[in-house]
Amino acid sequence: MGESERYQEFRNYSRQRKFAMLRPDNAVMALFTINAIGYLLLLFLQVSFFFAGKNTADFQQQVMQYMEVPGNLKLFSERPWTMLSFMFSEQTNQIIRLLSNMFWLWTFGYILQSMAGNDKVIPIYLYGGIVGAVFFILAGAFIDVPSYSPAAASMIGANASVMAIAFATTTLNPRFRLFSHIRNGVPIWVIASLYLIIDLAATPPNHAIAHLGGALSGFLFIALYRKGFDPGAWMNRLYAKLVDWFTPGNSSGKAKDRATLFYEHGGRSPFTKKQNLTQQRVDEILDKINQKGYHFLTDEEKEILKKASKEDLG
């Protein structure tokens, strides 16, 4: 509960200052955007097919099957890109499932982002989708897919990836509580268990196996992270390199000394450093939480954040 209370302190102040989900460097918001764009693009293509005199079957055969990950290994070898495309796509007639996935992504992703850092969200999401796809293809080798549903022969949607986010968050802090206004709140492991049960009850067997694979990947990610190995580090390094390549005039190594940014030294002894509470300083602390998580704050930074929340800075 102590960790939950400290996180709640940060969250309350963050809400007073700004709605953190709207930050431009927010990984959860980025996933929202990509999924929404993917859905709208497919919907636009389907409407185009309709005006061109083609039916739903044509759209499925000419477009959707190239976005879905197939359960057949031979077919997958001809469409390897579906390992990624399926987790950012959705059937155009499944808007409710898309909204459901985004709701659960927000529920668990925002907490994961605040506790573990912004740079963990997208790697866990990708690992969940990839492991889910592998489990799905392996399940296809042992389950007679056409016998129970033709639609189950392929998979599309963010379910496995969101399941990874949910169980990574739960593994990181199973005692974290939601809905704190209801008595002492509901433990996050209870919410995750209900989500898993609801999800598995509404999916074909090989899809359920894929979603369990996603959950397992989230658990393993955090287990390895706690042992000192970050499975998502290479993704973040690759992303940083790509940003450097495509950012004109970007020069690393020119970062200003933080002491000169946040502390005034003029006329003050260097041995008696005093906290200088400014909006810039508070913004930097919130950025650090967003990138690395609350656990990485120093005692001094936690004290500044606590003081800012009391003074309602910004």
Describe the model.
With 314 residues, the protein is mainly alpha-helical. It has two domains: 2-237, Rhomboid-like fold (Up-down Bundle), CATH 1.20.1540; 260-314, no CATH class. 63% of the residues lie in helices and 3% in strands. Strand 3 (177-178) and strand 4 form a beta hairpin. The relative contact order is 0.12.
CATH architecture of the largest domain: Up-down Bundle
CATH superfamily label of the largest domain: Rhomboid-like
End-to-end separation: 28 Å
Proportion of residues in extended strands: under 5%
Q: Please report the total strand number as a whole number.
A: 4
- Name the structural class: mainly alpha
Question: What gyration radius follows from the Cα positions, in whole Å?
Answer: 23 Å
**CATH class wording of the largest domain:** Mainly Alpha
Number of structurally distinct domains: 2
For the largest beta-sheet, the strand count, sense and barrel status come to:
2 strands, antiparallel
Low-confidence stretches: 1-10, 12-22, 253-265, 270-274
- Average pLDDT rating: 80
Spatial sequence of strands, sheet with the most strands: 1-2
Overall, the morphology is globular
Supply the number of helical segments: 14
Order of helices and strands: HHHEHHHHEHEEHHHHHH
> If you consult CATH, what is the topology of the largest domain?
Rhomboid-like fold
- DSSP helix fraction: 55-70%
